[in-house]
Amino acid sequence: MPSYPKLLRELPYPGRTGVLARFAAFADWPGAVLLDSGGHDSGRFDLFSALPVVSFQTDGAETRVQADDGSLLETRVDDPFLLLDRWLGQTRPALNDARARELPFAGGLLMALSYDLGRRLETLPNHALHDLPLPELQAGIYHWAFIVDHQRQHAGLWQFAPLPEATLRRIDDALNQAAADRPPFTLTTPWRSNLDREHYGRAFRRVQDYIHAGDCYQINLAQRFSANCIGDAFAAYCRLSPLNKAPFSSYWHTERGQILSLSPERFVSVKDGVALTEPIKGTRPRDADPLRDAAQIEALKHSEKDRAENLMIVDLLRNDFGKNCRTGSVKVPELFAIRSFAAVHHMVSSVTGTLAAGKTPLDLLRGCFPGGSITGAPKVRAMQIIEELEPHRRSLYCGSIGYCDYLGRLDSSITIRTLVHAKDQIHCWAGGGLVADSDEQSEYDETYAKVSRLLPVLEGDL
After folding, report:
1. Tens digit of each residue's pLDDT (9 = 90 or more) over 51-67
2. What integer pLDDT is reported at residue 61 of this predicted model?
3. Farthest CA pair distance, the chain
4. Domains of the chain and any CATH numbers
5. What's the burial of 75, exposed, middle or buried (CB within 10 Å: 0-12/13-18/19+)?
6. Which residue out of 245, 281, 359, 450 is catalytically annotated?
7. Full-prediction pTM beyond 0.85?
8. Annotated catalytic residue, options 136, 245, 265, 443
9. Which of 123, 213, 311, 429 has its Cα between 20 and 30 A from that of 27?
10. Catalytic residue at 309?
11. Is 265 a catalytic residue?
12. What is the phi-psi region of residue 362: left when phi exceeds 0, alpha when psi lies from -120 to 50, beta otherwise?
């Protein structure tokens, strides 16, 4: 019997920028996924894969499960998280666990969860326009990956379960290809928002009414920017990733469109039964002048408003963790830390816990989904208000991208700083948490600060 994972081939270490060139040969393949640490200092691994042996698509109440040849395996209307858990167990190969643990991913699920998948978990009204074609859940079971370890400066093609020889040859041939020029990406119209300043102001004031009436404590209000475009979405990603250096970056190719995520925020991770979430709440824009930039950090660090906003979400996530973690294990080891990214400084906290007996990583993900940092508190009422005030459904924005492998390890992002490309249009969102003492103009300006390394970069050719 072969021993998995199996190192099929070592390749020269490509460096951080070379990973994108390697992935380019695979970027249009069915189910192509890149998990990219974006050149961020904290990112040790990058990986990519394609050609899932089983794929999942959820639209509304229905999840379709298909084999790699496109044949339909089953259609279900039950909980998609339970469905993923069942298939992960059914497809698990015999692994050399010690060797598999040396890798960041040992085969299994890669998944992109739309914010609107939350409709399968909570009862919400239907007000916002559902106009983007991507499914609420796009996932697959993957049995190979190209993995780059930047710490060891090692790159290799890994196999996690039996695959047809024709598939392995196809992968190997693609790795042998020289990096080909891809069609450029170009906007053909300027960005336009679905909430102009006047409409944003009305929505902001409606949130304040809800807060003062006691309906909620915090609402994450977002606007969507859209533009017409031509060309290759992966070329757009290659322009954005080096400038943003986001530790939870990702590119997804689906039959209905592409996802370009430059996220700085971890959602939920699980390793050896220990769960972690790192919510972001509190933002200041970066400044080119070092002294003014340092002053922005100090202002954020000592902001009572931002600390209160952050604490609300920490409390919400402690409760979410409590649904699936052992009683007494949920802790807050880090509160109000400041982390700096390309465009902004963020206030970040950490919540940890130990999974309770009989609970799986996907149970935890389900219990926390969608993330409290991008809904508000209390979560369900916040989601209802978001549905009322935002003109369009959020699609992948504020959902999650991540993996759950055969060793029970999970890691996932909150898909902020995320773009969706479909039907010759590209869309990008930005929002912020509104509380009782929020200032309307400051909150509006903050949304633009968050996309200052996204929108102008792609608009540069106009």
Report:
1. 999 999 999 999 999 99
2. 94
3. 66
4. 6-459 (3.60.120.10)
5. exposed
6. 281
7. yes
8. 265
9. 429
10. no
11. yes
12. alpha
